[in-house]
Write a structure and sequence with these properties.
Blueprint: E1 2-6, H1 10-22, E2 28-31, H2 34-40, E3 45-50, H3 59-67, E4 77-81, H4 86-95, E5 99-102, H5 107-124
Parallel strand pairs: 1-2, 1-3, 3-4, 4-5
Helix pairs in contact: 2-3
């Protein structure tokens, strides 16, 4: 499965990419903002991990754009962010985000969220 990791922080992208590799996911591409990610998004992407706060296009705008694309209607989107207020989580879900992780996080939390999202996608199919 190919992941798309979107975060304006090079350090955070590296942390996520390393965590993905440690839990067994070795195929991933990365982008520094939503616009760049949209240029990389195609039918080969099976899972998206995105930040909320990014320049030029936020994670919410990116999620809405993905959901508006025929290839993106069922791709799991996991948001990794520092924004943890209830209204933020509601806004993310309304934008099409499937699940949410607050920074900082551990690789085991990331793995658990990914596993749960993939299981829910398989159950819905």
């Amino acid at each position: 499965m190919k992941f798309l990791v979107v975060d304006d922080s090079v350090t955070m992208r590296r942390i996520i990419m390393n965590a993905l590799e440690r839990i067994g996911y070795t195929e991933a591409v990365e982008a520094s903002n939503g616009h760049e990610a949209l240029g990389l998004f195609d039918a080969s992407i099976g899972f998206i991990i995105t930040d909320w706060n990014m320049p030029t296009m936020s994670g919410l705008e990116f999620a809405r754009s993905v959901r508006g694309n025929p290839c993106g209607s069922s791709v799991p989107i996991l948001m990794v962010t520092t924004r943890g207020a209830r209204e933020d989580i509601v806004a993310a879900v309304e934008a099409g985000v499937n699940n949410y992780i607050l920074k900082p996080f551990t690789p085991s939390v990331l793995k658990d969220k990914i596993d749960r999202l993939l299981a829910s996608v398989e159950a819905a199919a």
